[in-house]
Design goal:
Number of helices: 5
Helix content: 10-25%
Number of domains: 3
Strand order of the largest sheet: 2-1-3
Number of strands: 10
Shape: extended
Low-confidence stretches: 47-66
Structural class: alpha+beta
Order of helices and strands: HEEEHEHEEEEHEEH
Oligomer: single chain
Length: 250
Protein backbone atom coordinates (compact mmCIF):
# COMPACT_ATOMS: atom_id res chain seq x y z
CA UNK A 1 0.00 0.00 0.00
CA UNK A 2 2.88 2.37 0.70
CA UNK A 3 4.34 1.83 -2.78
CA UNK A 4 0.91 2.43 -4.32
CA UNK A 5 0.52 5.52 -2.14
CA UNK A 6 3.77 6.93 -3.55
CA UNK A 7 3.22 5.98 -7.19
CA UNK A 8 -0.19 7.63 -7.05
CA UNK A 9 1.60 10.96 -6.48
CA UNK A 10 3.70 10.71 -9.66
CA UNK A 11 1.61 12.17 -12.51
CA UNK A 12 3.03 9.86 -15.20
CA UNK A 13 2.19 6.68 -13.27
CA UNK A 14 -1.01 4.71 -14.00
CA UNK A 15 -1.44 3.69 -10.34
CA UNK A 16 -4.46 5.00 -8.49
CA UNK A 17 -5.32 4.77 -4.80
CA UNK A 18 -8.87 5.09 -3.57
CA UNK A 19 -8.10 4.40 0.12
CA UNK A 20 -4.56 4.88 1.41
CA UNK A 21 -5.18 2.53 4.35
CA UNK A 22 -7.96 0.43 2.90
CA UNK A 23 -11.73 0.95 2.92
CA UNK A 24 -12.18 -0.69 6.34
CA UNK A 25 -10.20 -0.92 9.58
CA UNK A 26 -10.37 -4.71 9.71
CA UNK A 27 -7.90 -6.33 7.30
CA UNK A 28 -10.19 -9.33 6.90
CA UNK A 29 -12.93 -7.19 5.38
CA UNK A 30 -11.04 -5.93 2.32
CA UNK A 31 -8.47 -6.82 -0.31
CA UNK A 32 -5.72 -4.78 -1.98
CA UNK A 33 -7.86 -4.59 -5.12
CA UNK A 34 -10.52 -2.71 -3.13
CA UNK A 35 -8.10 0.12 -2.37
CA UNK A 36 -5.78 0.42 -5.40
CA UNK A 37 -5.19 -0.90 -8.91
CA UNK A 38 -1.48 -1.66 -8.28
CA UNK A 39 -2.03 -5.42 -8.52
CA UNK A 40 -2.99 -4.92 -12.14
CA UNK A 41 0.74 -4.57 -12.78
CA UNK A 42 3.20 -7.39 -12.26
CA UNK A 43 6.43 -5.40 -12.36
CA UNK A 44 7.85 -1.96 -11.79
CA UNK A 45 10.77 -1.46 -14.20
CA UNK A 46 13.19 1.45 -14.35
CA UNK A 47 15.10 2.85 -17.29
CA UNK A 48 18.36 1.31 -16.08
CA UNK A 49 17.25 -2.30 -16.54
CA UNK A 50 16.21 -2.99 -12.99
CA UNK A 51 12.90 -4.69 -12.21
CA UNK A 52 10.91 -5.07 -9.02
CA UNK A 53 8.21 -7.73 -8.88
CA UNK A 54 5.20 -6.42 -6.99
CA UNK A 55 3.74 -9.79 -6.11
CA UNK A 56 5.11 -13.19 -7.02
CA UNK A 57 1.82 -14.99 -6.55
CA UNK A 58 -0.01 -13.25 -9.39
CA UNK A 59 -1.63 -15.70 -11.76
CA UNK A 60 0.89 -16.42 -14.54
CA UNK A 61 -1.90 -17.21 -16.97
CA UNK A 62 -3.55 -13.83 -16.49
CA UNK A 63 -2.74 -10.85 -18.69
CA UNK A 64 -2.56 -8.75 -15.53
CA UNK A 65 0.71 -10.35 -14.50
CA UNK A 66 2.31 -9.20 -17.77
CA UNK A 67 1.56 -5.49 -17.23
CA UNK A 68 4.60 -3.38 -16.37
CA UNK A 69 4.97 0.08 -14.84
CA UNK A 70 7.94 1.82 -16.45
CA UNK A 71 9.80 4.44 -14.45
CA UNK A 72 12.25 6.64 -16.31
CA UNK A 73 15.17 8.21 -14.49
CA UNK A 74 13.26 11.28 -13.29
CA UNK A 75 10.36 9.10 -12.13
CA UNK A 76 12.76 6.86 -10.21
CA UNK A 77 14.41 9.83 -8.52
CA UNK A 78 10.97 11.25 -7.70
CA UNK A 79 9.88 7.94 -6.16
CA UNK A 80 13.07 7.78 -4.11
CA UNK A 81 12.51 11.28 -2.71
CA UNK A 82 8.89 10.53 -1.87
CA UNK A 83 9.85 7.28 -0.13
CA UNK A 84 12.43 9.00 2.06
CA UNK A 85 10.35 12.07 2.87
CA UNK A 86 6.93 10.55 3.40
CA UNK A 87 7.47 7.21 5.12
CA UNK A 88 7.33 8.61 8.66
CA UNK A 89 4.17 10.55 7.84
CA UNK A 90 2.57 7.46 6.29
CA UNK A 91 3.29 5.46 9.46
CA UNK A 92 2.16 8.24 11.78
CA UNK A 93 -1.23 8.42 10.07
CA UNK A 94 -1.70 4.64 9.84
CA UNK A 95 -4.61 3.01 11.72
CA UNK A 96 -3.83 1.49 15.11
CA UNK A 97 -4.32 -2.04 13.73
CA UNK A 98 -1.44 -1.47 11.31
CA UNK A 99 0.91 -0.68 14.19
CA UNK A 100 0.15 -3.56 16.54
CA UNK A 101 3.14 -5.72 15.62
CA UNK A 102 5.58 -2.79 15.51
CA UNK A 103 6.92 -3.73 12.07
CA UNK A 104 6.16 -0.40 10.40
CA UNK A 105 7.68 1.62 13.22
CA UNK A 106 10.98 -0.26 13.02
CA UNK A 107 11.52 0.12 9.28
CA UNK A 108 14.21 2.58 8.22
CA UNK A 109 15.24 4.01 4.89
CA UNK A 110 18.26 2.20 3.45
CA UNK A 111 20.69 4.86 2.24
CA UNK A 112 23.47 2.57 1.10
CA UNK A 113 24.71 -1.01 0.98
CA UNK A 114 27.76 -2.60 2.58
CA UNK A 115 29.21 -5.91 1.46
CA UNK A 116 29.25 -8.65 4.06
CA UNK A 117 32.86 -9.92 4.39
CA UNK A 118 33.25 -13.19 2.48
CA UNK A 119 35.02 -14.83 5.43
CA UNK A 120 32.04 -14.06 7.67
CA UNK A 121 29.73 -15.90 5.27
CA UNK A 122 32.10 -18.86 4.85
CA UNK A 123 32.45 -19.22 8.61
CA UNK A 124 28.72 -19.91 8.84
CA UNK A 125 28.04 -21.86 5.63
CA UNK A 126 30.10 -24.87 4.54
CA UNK A 127 28.56 -25.07 1.08
CA UNK A 128 27.01 -22.22 -0.92
CA UNK A 129 24.78 -22.72 -3.96
CA UNK A 130 23.71 -20.62 -6.94
CA UNK A 131 20.02 -21.61 -6.74
CA UNK A 132 17.45 -22.63 -4.12
CA UNK A 133 16.23 -25.43 -6.43
CA UNK A 134 17.63 -28.75 -5.20
CA UNK A 135 17.41 -30.27 -8.68
CA UNK A 136 19.46 -27.70 -10.59
CA UNK A 137 21.63 -25.91 -8.05
CA UNK A 138 25.41 -26.02 -8.19
CA UNK A 139 27.97 -25.16 -5.50
CA UNK A 140 29.84 -21.90 -6.04
CA UNK A 141 33.21 -20.58 -4.99
CA UNK A 142 32.10 -17.41 -3.20
CA UNK A 143 35.48 -15.58 -3.24
CA UNK A 144 35.56 -15.90 -7.06
CA UNK A 145 31.88 -15.14 -7.66
CA UNK A 146 31.07 -11.66 -9.09
CA UNK A 147 28.93 -9.53 -6.81
CA UNK A 148 26.62 -8.23 -9.56
CA UNK A 149 25.30 -9.25 -12.94
CA UNK A 150 27.34 -7.44 -15.63
CA UNK A 151 24.37 -6.11 -17.57
CA UNK A 152 21.90 -5.16 -14.87
CA UNK A 153 24.15 -4.70 -11.81
CA UNK A 154 21.65 -6.72 -9.83
CA UNK A 155 23.03 -8.73 -6.93
CA UNK A 156 23.96 -12.31 -7.81
CA UNK A 157 22.11 -14.22 -5.13
CA UNK A 158 23.49 -17.27 -3.34
CA UNK A 159 21.77 -19.82 -1.12
CA UNK A 160 22.49 -22.19 1.75
CA UNK A 161 21.87 -25.94 1.74
CA UNK A 162 18.28 -25.38 2.92
CA UNK A 163 17.57 -23.12 -0.05
CA UNK A 164 17.51 -19.91 1.96
CA UNK A 165 18.96 -16.74 0.51
CA UNK A 166 22.31 -15.69 2.02
CA UNK A 167 22.53 -11.87 2.16
CA UNK A 168 25.84 -10.66 0.74
CA UNK A 169 24.97 -7.01 1.39
CA UNK A 170 23.47 -5.27 4.40
CA UNK A 171 21.69 -1.94 4.31
CA UNK A 172 22.98 1.21 5.95
CA UNK A 173 20.41 3.62 7.30
CA UNK A 174 22.94 6.40 7.87
CA UNK A 175 25.82 7.57 5.68
CA UNK A 176 28.68 9.74 6.91
CA UNK A 177 27.13 10.02 10.35
CA UNK A 178 29.38 11.54 13.01
CA UNK A 179 31.15 9.02 15.21
CA UNK A 180 29.99 8.66 18.79
CA UNK A 181 30.94 6.71 21.87
CA UNK A 182 29.31 3.42 22.80
CA UNK A 183 26.72 3.77 25.54
CA UNK A 184 26.03 1.11 28.17
CA UNK A 185 22.58 0.12 29.38
CA UNK A 186 23.14 0.85 33.05
CA UNK A 187 20.14 -1.26 34.07
CA UNK A 188 21.53 -4.51 32.65
CA UNK A 189 25.04 -4.60 34.12
CA UNK A 190 24.51 -5.74 37.74
CA UNK A 191 27.32 -8.29 37.31
CA UNK A 192 29.85 -5.47 37.44
CA UNK A 193 28.82 -4.74 41.01
CA UNK A 194 28.12 -8.29 42.21
CA UNK A 195 30.27 -10.69 44.23
CA UNK A 196 28.60 -13.68 42.59
CA UNK A 197 29.62 -15.49 39.42
CA UNK A 198 27.41 -14.30 36.57
CA UNK A 199 24.66 -16.74 35.49
CA UNK A 200 25.72 -19.31 38.11
CA UNK A 201 22.69 -21.23 39.33
CA UNK A 202 24.44 -22.15 42.60
CA UNK A 203 25.21 -18.49 43.40
CA UNK A 204 28.90 -19.19 43.94
CA UNK A 205 31.02 -16.25 44.97
CA UNK A 206 33.57 -15.00 42.47
CA UNK A 207 36.97 -15.95 43.91
CA UNK A 208 38.78 -13.35 41.83
CA UNK A 209 36.82 -10.59 43.50
CA UNK A 210 37.18 -12.00 47.02
CA UNK A 211 40.96 -12.12 46.66
CA UNK A 212 41.20 -8.39 46.01
CA UNK A 213 42.41 -6.22 48.83
CA UNK A 214 40.22 -3.25 49.66
CA UNK A 215 43.08 -0.96 48.72
CA UNK A 216 43.13 -2.51 45.21
CA UNK A 217 39.39 -2.40 44.74
CA UNK A 218 38.60 0.08 41.93
CA UNK A 219 36.20 2.94 42.36
CA UNK A 220 33.52 3.14 39.68
CA UNK A 221 31.60 6.23 38.62
CA UNK A 222 28.45 6.01 36.54
CA UNK A 223 27.46 8.80 34.15
CA UNK A 224 23.97 8.52 32.63
CA UNK A 225 23.65 10.37 29.34
CA UNK A 226 21.44 13.44 29.47
CA UNK A 227 17.79 12.71 28.62
CA UNK A 228 18.52 8.99 28.08
CA UNK A 229 18.44 8.20 31.81
CA UNK A 230 19.51 4.55 31.77
CA UNK A 231 22.17 4.78 29.04
CA UNK A 232 25.57 6.23 29.67
CA UNK A 233 29.22 5.64 30.50
CA UNK A 234 31.32 4.06 33.23
CA UNK A 235 34.64 5.30 34.53
CA UNK A 236 36.82 3.04 36.64
CA UNK A 237 40.04 3.85 38.46
CA UNK A 238 41.43 0.42 37.56
CA UNK A 239 40.65 -2.79 35.69
CA UNK A 240 37.43 -4.29 36.99
CA UNK A 241 38.05 -7.54 38.90
CA UNK A 242 35.64 -9.43 36.67
CA UNK A 243 37.97 -8.91 33.71
CA UNK A 244 41.26 -9.67 35.41
CA UNK A 245 40.93 -13.43 34.90
CA UNK A 246 40.56 -12.99 31.15
CA UNK A 247 43.40 -10.49 30.98
CA UNK A 248 45.72 -12.93 32.74
CA UNK A 249 44.91 -15.56 30.13
CA UNK A 250 45.74 -13.16 27.32
Amino acid sequence: MFIAYLLNQIPSMPVHVMYSYGPCKDFKEWKIEDATNILYFGYISTSFAFAIMILDYLNDESDNSQKTITLHLQDTLHLNRLMINQYNEFVANAPADWLKDGWLQHCEVVRGWVQVPVNDILSVHDVIYNSPDLDVRQPVDLPLLPLHEPGTQREIKVYDKEGRHIPCFIGRTHINSPECGILINLETIPQLFSLYVAHDEHLNLDADILDIDDRERPSINVYPQAFLWKYGHLQSSSILPHFKTFIKIV
